Amino acid sequence: MVSLQELQLKALQNPRETILQLLGALIAVQTASWIITVIYRVTFHPLAKFPGPFLCRISYIYQIYYEAWLNGRMLERLPELHRKYGSVVRINPNEVHLVDPNLYHVIYRQNTLFLKDPYAYKLGAPNSLSMSLDPVKHKRRKELLNPCFSKRRVHLLQHIMYEEMQKVFEKLSAAAESEQAVPIQDAYYCYTGDIISRYLFGKSLKLIEQANFAKETVDQLRSFTSGIWVSIHISLIRVLIMAMPRSMATIFASGWMKIVWFCESLAGESIKEHGSHGTLEKDIGQETIFDRMLNGNVTKGTHRAVGFQDLADEGASLLVAGTETTATTMAYATYYMLLYPEKRQKLLEEIATVERDADGRLSLQKLDMLPYLNGVIKETLRYTNGVPGRLTRVVPRGGLFIPELNDHVPEGCVVGISHNAIHFNPDIFENPYEFRPERWLGDKGKGLDHWFLAFSKGSRDCIGKTLAIAEVQIMIANLFTTFDLELLPGHAEDMEILDRVIVHSRRNLKVRMKSRKIENGAVGDN
């Protein structure tokens, strides 16, 4: 038997051979570990009974390839997987994707026990409503912020929406006179960004005053989503960047990190100003969102005022959601109205029946009553859902019963249903790949509201949906009665729908446009 001393002596005499032996041993151990893991995942894992591609069953490589390497193509792959494997498909070792519409309202409902999957929510801003994993903290924050997004409060903001719309229209008119391509989607970013910034912290970002419809800032906002899948799957990159000195980190930081840092500076300024004046509302004439957070929920007496990081995280989350997703919805609504002129004409005829206020405006109260306008908006959101992919959830104790299979998805596993799986289900939406605002009209349209998932459902639905709809109503109703617009060559490629967690067009929409005039309620050319 070889003694330890003899082994040490041999290692010193022949270090190269010893290193190779150690490497071989490590490789053997790692290989054995991997083989055991594969056998477990294929045979003994709680999800082993559910079908899916072999690579999905044994590793995350398949998902990472389609989401990170191909930048969001997993959503396009899912229908093909379901055609091959059925209604329940295992898409990674611990997750199945579902398409049964009825299960959506089991998983994503009020007071749900299906909590957010931590793996999918690692983008930062953990203290924000959208990224919060703790259901108790989420409920408290939502109760605190809900009054800011009530229909009454949103209608009180319509003067701000019109102020910002008018600034955008003045710039659009000047651009239209040049007969050049107008970056209208960038203009929408200016509109939504300046509105949400005023409501957030009482100061406009003044995007509309920047050159070229704030192209540089808009590109930075869009860059938030460009590498989002890499950030989710390789979170170490974000951790390393955050550990760097800020001066160095800005070189490598994503658009999202820069937005969080920007909101940190705003949070500091807001806390200081609120401490001095007791309010930030001077720019809008009512309580801002930051005011609400800094004051706490005084009426209920149950919520303390929040701190610096809460303001920064919530500010970043609401700034992106309130700017990019709403602007993208406006862009696609514009695109579809130009793509289908007969539908645009129906919209114009409906708007022409509305009596304008003394100041010439179309009030939100009246726009809410226009079925075709709201059908256009709903159909746009169905077709280009703000979050088209999976909102993953962890199965609670007791599992998730799958009626079709008479079986359960075990607790602790992850499930998800993509919004596209519902919005393009032909059993719910007839001819789902046709853009048909008419489907939302009448009693039949009201019946479809149960399956309208543009803002999700349940406890974790989008808090800003009322504000977003109001902004789109005002912009779209006034845009087509103020300007003639025309699509440019190559628009189909530009407006390809991409999944960057939130919906994204390949390029921002550009159009040619000229002004119109309104005479006695009728729309005519200048």
UniProtKB/TrEMBL annotation:
Q: Which UniProt keywords apply?
A: Heme, Iron, Membrane, Metal-binding, Monooxygenase, Oxidoreductase, Transmembrane, Transmembrane helix
InterPro entries in the cross-refs:
Cyt_P450 (IPR001128), Cyt_P450_CS (IPR017972), Cyt_P450_E_grp-I (IPR002401), Cyt_P450_sf (IPR036396), Cytochrome_P450_monoxygenase (IPR050121)
**Which Pfam families does this entry report, sorted A to Z?**
p450
Which cofactors are named for this entry?
heme
Q: Which residues bind heme?
A: C462
Select a single GO molecular function from the record's annotations and give it.
oxidoreductase activity, acting on paired donors, with incorporation or reduction of molecular oxygen
Q: Which domain of life is it from?
A: Eukaryota
Membrane-spanning regions, if any? Answer: 20-40
Protein family: Belongs to the cytochrome P450 family.
This one is known as Cytochrome P450 monooxygenase
Q: Which organism is it from?
A: Helicocarpus griseus UAMH5409
